[in-house]
Amino acid sequence: MSSDLAFPTADDIRAAAGRVLGQVVQTPLVSSPRLAQISGAKSVHLKLENQQFTGSFKDRGALNKLLSLTPEETKRGVIAMSAGNHAQGVAYHAQRLGIPATIVMPKATPFTKVERTAGFGAKVELEGDTIDAAAIYARKVAEQHNLVFVHPYDDPLIVAGQGTIGLEILKALPSFDSVIVPIGGGGLISGIAIAVKEKRPAVEMFGVEADLYPSMHHAVKHLPPDNRGQTIADGIAVKSPGRLTQAIIQRHVTDLLLATENQLEHAVHILVERQGLVAEGAGAASLAALLAEPGRFAGRDVILIVSGGNIDSRLLAQVLMRGLIHDGRVVTLRIEISDQPGVLGHLARLIGSTGGNIIEIYHQRMFFDLPVKRADVDAVIETRNAAHVHEIISALESGGFPTRRLSSRSEEESQ
Q1: Are residues 137 and 29 in the same domain?
Q2: Where would I find the ACT domain in this sequence (predicted)?
């Protein structure tokens, strides 16, 4: 399969590192004892690519590709297709280098991503319902206008640029045995694997995809394609894996793992709660895989690549609130009361006496399944944990208020 493919080498990655030096962020590699404790790993380190200027690792490969252009190619300009991070990486560095850039994005791309990309000076065209349709259009425009096509992953120069992350890890950490990397098209893990394996061949590389978009997983394992639906990890929702990157992955990667939507969402929440770190769904995929398979990584020195932090603020707010509900720290209780003066105040004082904090309260009098002199109160309450919820319910029922829980997900999972 790989005989006609131009594999980048460790020397190519070192050359890329020299090219991009001072023009991309050499991101921190930070230790996380908390994540090690909850995962069972001996140690966990996070490589924070969410701290790049555009918020993702894509800066590296995009810059390395753009710096390789001839003066004549630079004058003609470049074109790329992307729904987000690659678009911003190409647009930002093209603007810095004075290279005309056109970015083709699917029609359904969130407005904020379109605006952010256009804000870097790129010409943005919305075309196609999917990234694959956008790619077909971008190829056609590239041919018509003689533009250089900047592929998001299936290009040796892109792979070499991403591989500079591996060199930084090797320099920063004397010993580790496992690296977990999010996979979309495979450029990130390919570059890191080449860099790391040259110096430390015993290190095991693990890739992780969203289980709704297992394109590389299925290609490597010779399974039919099975891509579908909406995922929180839109940065790795790739339907067509790279040909070059697949060959590299088959050579250097130990295994490919899949993360469910619940696992990805939980990982985003855990990074904020335990690490004070904002990651997009794709960026949190490495942690999702670690937490999903604790037995596999127990006692190991693990590096997690946090590939990006470009998550919509409204989506992040939803994830955090859902996380509180999942942990039993926000609960909705339906409480039956007699519809008489002073009863609602007594109810509020009873909840307060248990240490619960009422966030919202809804007084329902018009439910037809209630007697006319009864009412239901839906109370949204902030609590300490799931055990505290049980304490509040017990106190309410002992006080003569029949109570049932409406937000029961965490309770069901804890039993």
Answers
A1: no
A2: 332-411
Which residue, chain included where needed, has tokens 């020397």? 11
- 231 contact partners, CB below 8 Å, separation of at least 6: 210, 212, 213, 237, 261, 264, 281
Asked, for residue 92, whether it belongs to a domain, the answer is yes
CB 194 within 8 A of CB 8: yes
| Model pLDDT, residue 264 | 98
User: Is 2 inside a domain boundary?
Assistant: no
Q: Are residues 110 and 239 in the same domain?
A: no
Same domain flag for 22 and 118: no
Whether this prediction's pTM lies above 0.85 is answered by yes
Q: Which domain holds residue 121?
A: 58-149
203 and 304 share one domain: yes
Q: Rounded to the nearest 10 degrees, what angle do helices 285-292 and 261-275 cross at?
A: 100
Sequence-ordered strand ranges (E) for 116-155: 123-126, 148-149
Query: Distance between CA 368 and CA 48 in Å, rounded?
Result: 55
Residue 326 and residue 392 in contact, taking contact as beta carbons nearer than 8 Å: no
Q: pLDDT tens digits for 291-313?
A: 999 999 999 999 999 999 999 88
- Using the structure block, give the residue that is written with the tokens 């904090």: 357
Q: Tell me how far apart the alpha carbons of residues 178 and 285 are, in angstroms, rounded to a whole number.
A: 15
Whether 3 is in a domain gets the answer no
Residues 287 and 192 in one domain: yes
Considering the chain, what is the average pLDDT of its residues? 92
Q: Is there a contact between 347 and 376 (Cβ–Cβ < 8 Å)?
A: no
pLDDT at residue 220 tops 50:
yes
> Taking the C-alpha atoms of 340, 346, 350 and 352 in order, what is their torsion angle to the nearest 10 degrees?
120
